[in-house]
Design brief:
alpha+beta, single chain, elongated, two-stranded antiparallel ribbon, two-stranded antiparallel sheet, about 45% helix, disordered C terminus, Arc Repressor Mutant, subunit A
Amino acid sequence: MPAPKDSLNARQLAFCREFCIDLNASAAARRAGYAERTAGRHAADMMQDPRIQAEIARLTAAKVARASIEADEIVEQLANIVRADISDVLTWGMAEVEDSEGLPMTLPNGEAILRPTISVIDSSRLPRSITGAIAEVSMTDKGTFKIKMHDKGAAIEKLMRHLGMFEKDNKQVADGLAQLIEAAQGTTLPLAPRSMATTALEGADE
């Protein structure tokens, strides 16, 4: 019996490859060459095709094998990004301004003159759950230090997809959002199985 991919045309195979990139069926259909106007309908139809589902499963398994990473590791990393906060890597506040003799400078009414301060926490003191949530660390030629965290909104969206919170008939959406809020406060996110067809239909309506 021929492999599922042998019965798919070039555009369908391209759709399978593109879908495995971001799990967005409509976007995958557009990138595979389907017209903008009909990409959503073609995506929904293809994701109901057992041959398409089998090819996506084959590509996904191969990708996971190459990366040697499990699904729960991916979810854990996304959860770390959701939980992370800029205050985990920076502290800021107000400090008294001192004169050349180290004495606090004051206003005519006697109140201390304050200035804003920012302090970076030494990376050696940060756990991997926090450093993994940092997207970029850089310093300009003028000495300006920059720390950029990974996009928390994008991580929440991906977690919601994995947890099935975008299903149209899901009556537990509110509970799912509550789970994400709890996750951001440090509780554990459960990993719920869901079908690829459901994931695709989400993207098809975008």
